[in-house]
Amino acid sequence: MPDIVTITINPAVDIFVDVERVEPIRKMRCSAPKRDPGGGGINVARVAYRLGGDVTAIYPAGGAIGKLLQKLLDREGIVSIATPSHVETRENFTAFETTSGDQFRFVLPGSTLHRAEWEACLDKLTTLQGKPSFVVASGSIPPGVPEDFFSRVIREARKLGARTVVDTSGDALKEAIAEGVDIIKPNLNELSEFTGEKLDSDAACVAACRKLIDADRVTMVALTLGGDGALLVTKDRALKAQPMKIDVVSAVGAGDSFLGGLVWALAQGQSEHDAFRVAVAAGSAAVMNPGTELCREVEVKQLLPKVKIAEISL
């Protein structure tokens, strides 16, 4: 039985290319494309597996792209439970402009899923043999899937005795928090949008997290702050990780790597403090790699001793 199960209701195959310059009208000659399995929960699974975790990924897959997605995950050694979809699995496209160092990210919407198709993913969760330690629901919600889908995942995960983790935004995040969830991992913009508050200081961020915790809606908030580091807030503690001094190559997948590292470490029985250190190292390692590469174990281990965490007293 896996320690970690991820659910990705809007998976993708991510395509990455280099191009000299992005310009209108004219043909832009690109490098050979690199293709990676993608979608929030799938990326979390990839990171947790790279760090040594026992992971299973649940997701819908359809068409030729869906078959490619399964093949790419098989190639990485990820145990996956793919449910059939009548629509083609989506693709995302990222172009790195070599002359400027800028990235251009084109995120395609998922196609509409039938009720039976998204319910099939829930059914696969409910019929798992054994009990995982964590169930992670991450990513966006495609058309046809109700905004309370992650709430339904939470309810089924509780029946398995698993801790629940959600990383999403908008109404899907609101529904998950209303249901009650163990861990959420918003970024600063997502938390600000949810609370309707301008979160312009550590104190304001911690206060916003504590409102959710004190209302018994969330147990832990892992808040990523981009270039300003990250916060980990529980009922009794607030930890701040300083941004690491590294060369940023690509920001794609940093949040998923952060969450994959956090969940893997917690599933290993590490303390909140130590798990937070792993998360920061994993998120930082991801930005050192081009395209959609995510973090690698060797880089996480190299960065881990350099992570600086301080307790915030408020």
UniProtKB/TrEMBL annotation:
Sorted UniProt keywords: ATP-binding, Kinase, Nucleotide-binding, Transferase
Domain Carbohydrate kinase PfkB: 10-295
Top-rank lineage group of the source organism: Bacteria
A GO molecular-function descriptor: 6-phosphofructokinase activity
Name of the protein in its database record: Phosphofructokinase
Family: Belongs to the carbohydrate kinase PfkB family.
GO cellular component, as recorded: cytosol
